[in-house]
Automatic annotation (TrEMBL):
This is Deoxyribose-phosphate aldolase. PROSITE patterns: PROKAR_LIPOPROTEIN (PS51257). It comes from Haliscomenobacter hydrossis (strain ATCC 27775 / DSM 1100 / LMG 10767 / O). InterPro entries: DUF6503.
Length: 241
């Protein structure tokens, strides 16, 4: 699956993320707060973790309100390509030579970090949370949270609407859905704790009915009509702290 364009939230300061969450829906905000605490809490503020994702070497860092997300790979000719996204923007190099970065590279690095750092990314100031009620999946009870974004700070795809399923007992984020690039429903599978932060692998399902709202994708999954499209797996984790 190609990484598509997701809200460019990460250029907001990490310090804002910890304190700037809007409480327009206090119930949804509290559920997300508990979820973030279980997945890593304060460890998200200062960490340095690397891992492999498909053909990429990835290193994600937060420190003192700053972030640095690095993605490196080799192309078919053996050239080393490095993209580094920070609070100041994106730099791109090929074999150590600086390039003029394109927006698509910035947004793809951001998308990679966005998914890897869920649910922490749901605390950023441009995020709007809405409680949609309770539901059950595989005999587990979940709180369903709708996520939308402000036009300012929400990026190119700010009109997108996502949905997250938070386990009422464990407070973990077990499922998520989105429609950007095609309707998708993800189920968390393997969990790995590195530097006090939980990182998750996913089974990535395709939802054939493009007329459905993202909040209804769980129904298709429970009916057995979701098609397993790919597996989202990260390996070889290292904490550098």
């Amino acid at each position: 699956m190609l990484i598509r364009l997701f809200p460019f939230l990460c250029l907001l300061f990490i310090a804002q993320s910890c304190s700037g969450q809007k409480d327009a829906d206090p119930k949804a905000a509290e559920i997300v707060r508990q979820c973030v605490e279980v997945h890593g809490g304060r460890n998200y503020r200062n960490f340095d973790v690397s891992f492999d994702f498909r053909a990429f070497k990835v290193q994600l860092q937060h420190k003192g309100g700053k972030f640095r997300y690095e993605r490196s790979t080799k192309d078919t000719l053996g050239n080393t390509i490095v993209d580094i996204l920070t609070n100041e923007g994106l730099t791109r190099s090929i074999n150590g030579k600086a390039q003029t970065p394109e927006d698509k590279y910035r947004e793809s690095v951001n998308a990679l970090a966005y998914f890897a750092l869920l649910p922490f990314k749901l605390t950023e100031p441009a995020v709007n949370l809405k409680y949609l009620g309770e539901t059950s999946i595989d005999k587990q009870k979940y709180d369903k949270i709708e996520v939308s974004f402000d036009a300012e700070g929400g990026g190119k795809d700010y009109k997108d609407v996502y949905c997250y399923w938070i386990n009422q007992q464990t407070h973990t984020m077990d499922y998520l859905s989105y429609a950007t690039g095609g309707p998708r429903f993800r189920k968390a599978t393997k969990r790995t704790t590195v530097g006090g932060i939980i990182f998750q692998d996913y089974d990535n399902y395709e939802i054939k009915d493009t007329t459905l709202s993202t909040q209804d994708y769980d129904r298709v999954f429970m009916e057995g009509k979701a098609v397993l499209l790919s597996k989202i797996e990260q390996t070889n984790y290292v904490s550098h702290k």
